[in-house]
Amino acid sequence: MKKALVLGATGSMGYALVQELVKRNVEVTAFARGEERLRAFFANQNGVTLFPGDMFHPDSLDQAAADADVIFHAVNLPYGQWEQKLPLLTDRLLAAAQATGAKLVVVDNVYAYGRSNGQKVTEETPKQPASKKGKIRLQLEQTIKQSAVPALIAHFPDFYGPHAGNTLLHYTMQGILSGKKAYFVGNQQIEREYIYTPDGAKALVELALHDFAYGQNWNIPGSGVISGAEIIRILREASGYRRRVGTVTKPMLRFLGLFDKMMSEMVEMMYLTEQPVILSGEKYEKFIGKVPMTAYRDGILQTWNWMTARR
To answer: Which Pfam families does its entry note (predicted)?
Structure first.
């Protein structure tokens, strides 16, 4: 891989992917809608070409992908746009990849797996979506697999890390940073899985370098599991925050959803905070090597330090 196109380059995983690719001396085209945000993130960074554009515009995508060996799809749309826009975006990506001969690497979540049975899920675990959004993700996966484009799909747990702003843990950290009332989404005693975005990017770029990885699904797990209570304890030590951290519950989201459609869209995904899906990394370790894993304490503190430095 000599040149890569990263779609959603200013997003949580997109930013980390750009940094990892540059470290490996891959020339990167960083694609996002907002030119100002692209410049804020990557201005004067060697090896990065900025490409502000509309990913739903055929000419824009085709031009950005013209010389790319690999297209990394790390675009994150608001929930309310998934049903109408994600299928259209997928069709556009496949068309651009086919026209340019590029391979496609897709950043995906765990929604298509459905509810947990208490065991780690592998790539062979039957996908039985338990939500509308999970069904959409599975439909997109099937569309990609039925195409002629060499593509790999990587399933990740929830993100956290520097520049990972639109995430559940960032929401909690931002509340603590403000010194006001902070909230944690879901039961604070249940252990869940998260992935530090630099780890996820490192694992995904490594996958993308192997031809045999295409045409397959891959799970990229985090560093085990951790409870909300433990996360909050680490943040209290780092920040000196002493106020009670509230819990965002499903009834609370339902109420907020009466006034905010985004909140109402989150209700159906709350099952993941009650029955977390935990990913198995056995396949990755068998065929690629050790999954990059930063200990939660280290990753949380590094994320916190980044947030406080930008305050």
So the answer is: Epimerase
Yes or no: say if 147 and 87 are a contact pair by the CB < 8 Å rule: no
Q: Is the pLDDT of residue 256 over 90?
A: no
**For residue 58, pLDDT beyond 80:** no
For every residue of 190-223, DSSP letters joined together read SEE-EEEHHHHHHHHHHHHT-GGGTTSEEE---S
Report how far apart, in Å, the C-alpha atoms of 124 and of each of 118, 128, 279, 281 are: 16, 12, 11, 12
How does the average pLDDT of the chain come out, rounded?
A: 94
Does position 259 have pLDDT exceeding 80, yes or no? no
Residues 131 and 157 in one domain: yes
Examine the pLDDT at 50 and tell me if it is beyond 80. yes
Tell whether 282 and 270 lie within a shared domain: no
Other beta carbons within 10 angstroms of residue 308's beta carbon come to 12
Give the pLDDT band (50/70/90) at residue 255: confident
The answer for residues whose C-beta is within 8 angstroms of residue 291's C-beta and 6 or more apart is: 199, 203, 220, 221, 281, 284, 285
Are both 252 and 182 inside the same structural domain? yes
* 111 lies in the same domain as 209: yes
Q: b or e along 78-107 (b: 16 or more beta carbons within 10 Å of the residue's beta carbon)?
A: ebeebeeebeebbebbbbbbeebebbbbbb
Place of tokens 């370790």: 285
CATH number assigned to the domain comprising residue 200: 3.40.50.720
159 close to 12: Cβ distance less than 8 angstroms: yes
User: Would the pLDDT of 264 be above 90?
Assistant: no
pLDDT of residue 111: 97
171: three-class secondary structure by DSSP: helix
Contact 166, 37 (CB under 8 A): no
> Which runs of consecutive H residues, i.e. helices, occur in 50-191?
58-65, 82-100, 132-145, 168-178
Tell me the two tokens of residue 300.
């949380």
